[in-house]
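> example.struct
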């Protein structure tokens, strides 16, 4: 029997994937309450949620996942029966220059959330409960030219970001093994799509092409990532929440491997077309720069388990997804300007008062 959530707590719902998830989930699950807990770091933007913020079933709370009393109160007040935990520091390059906040948010924040959920779940009157941890394929480390990550691949993170996500996954495992908590854990590949902060590869390239700025490609540009459209990811998360086996891990991937340089070439060529520039114009902006330290060479997900057990399939082809994404960025230049300048914080002030 499928689990049917009635009131979910989403953490990090103002970020890239969390906001796409809320938009998608609320349109597919009318009547289910959604409480979005987000502290609004540089990466959190309430403009991503225009529309759903008028829905009476939606509530935004600005707060920290490390704030145990706040979480305890929200769980009770909203009679939460499912937690979907996206909140994190998510950018590898930032973790290299400042790892501490990654440990605080990603490891300690997850532990606080798990502990409050455990107490609530053990004493709760809600008939059923799920805790879903959103993780990454980066916990598995790096692959050579062949092979795929399965759910049984040993964890071998290489960056402070992926190490902190691994710490969180291990705590989730421990809460299931020790307390029997009904946890779920998803590990997905690189997402792309609307509302992606332009510090990550695809939106950064789009933004720099618009502004005719250099396109920094790390190292030899031959590192490989497996790209998944954020809407396909959102539906996969919903599918795992409703049908996943408590205690299980599910890999989520698009079976869509690209070398970085090939992605950059593709984005350049498509944008030359969209912007009416001569073919080759944007490629001339490509600048090879010093490699990222500890740069993982290749990620590739084996998503056979979620396909087989839960019948999930990605619906986007990369061809259509990347065109749609470029068009979204070109149509939403104001959004890009707001997130890069920090202007979007003003949206919070107009909606919720000055902070
Ligand atoms: P993001 O950086 O765009 O958003 C993170 C959100 O978390 C922001 O809204 C931020 O304000 C919020 N947040 C940060 N610290 C918080 C705190 N202490 N309390 C409450 N909220 C806090 O990240 P994203 O790309 O949307 O990633 C979401 C999740 O998915 C993360 O757990 C990430 O590790 C995972 N993931 C992302 C990708 C990807 O390609 N982006 C791939 C695999 C896994
Ligand atoms: P990124 O979007 O940061 O995601 P992740 O490191 O989590 O996979 O980077 C994707 C790939 O693109 C990665 O191999 C690093 C590379 N990259 C560049 O070459 N140049 C850039 O400016 C950025 C941000 C990333």
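> example.seq
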């Amino acid at each position: 029997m499928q689990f049917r959530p009635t009131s979910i707590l989403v953490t990090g719902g103002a970020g890239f994937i969390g906001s796409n998830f809320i938009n998608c989930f609320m349109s597919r699950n009318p009547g289910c309450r959604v409480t979005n807990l987000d502290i609004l770091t540089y990466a959190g933007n309430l403009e991503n949620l225009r529309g759903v913020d008028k829905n009476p079933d939606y509530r935004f709370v600005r707060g920290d996942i490390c704030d145990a009393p706040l979480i305890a109160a929200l769980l009770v007040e909203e009679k939460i029966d499912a937690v979907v935990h996206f909140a994190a520091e998510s950018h590898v390059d930032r973790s290299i220059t400042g790892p501490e906040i990654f440990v605080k948010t990603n490891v300690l924040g997850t532990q606080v959330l798990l502990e409050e959920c455990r107490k609530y779940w053990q004493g709760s009157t809600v008939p059923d409960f799920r805790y879903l941890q959103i993780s990454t394929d980066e916990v598995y480390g790096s692959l050579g030219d062949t092979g795929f990550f399965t759910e049984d691949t040993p964890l071998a993170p290489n960056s402070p970001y992926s190490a902190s996500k691994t710490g969180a996954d291990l705590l989730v495992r421990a809460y299931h093994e020790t307390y029997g908590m009904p946890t779920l854990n998803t590990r997905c590949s690189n997402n792309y799509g609307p509302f992606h902060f332009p510090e990550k590869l695809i939106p950064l390239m789009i933004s720099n092409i618009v502004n005719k700025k250099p396109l920094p490609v790390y190292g030899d540009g031959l590192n490989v990532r497996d790209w998944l459209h954020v809407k396909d990811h959102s539906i996969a998360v919903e599918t795992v929440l409703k049908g996943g086996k408590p205690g299980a891990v599910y890999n989520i991937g698009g079976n869509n491997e690209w070398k970085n340089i090939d992605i950059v070439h593709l984005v350049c060529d498509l944008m030359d077309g969209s912007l009416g520039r001569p073919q080759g114009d944007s490629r001339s902006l490509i600048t090879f720069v010093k490699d990222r330290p500890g740069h993982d060479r290749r990620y590739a997900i084996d998503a056979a388990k979620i396909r087989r057990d839960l019948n999930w399939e990605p619906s986007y082809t990369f061809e259509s997804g990347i065109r749609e994404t470029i068009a979204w960025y070109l149509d939403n230049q104001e959004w890009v300007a707001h997130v890069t300048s920090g202007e979007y914080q003003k949206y919070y002030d107009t909606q919720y008062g000055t902070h």
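> remarks
The chain is about 45% helix and 15% strand.
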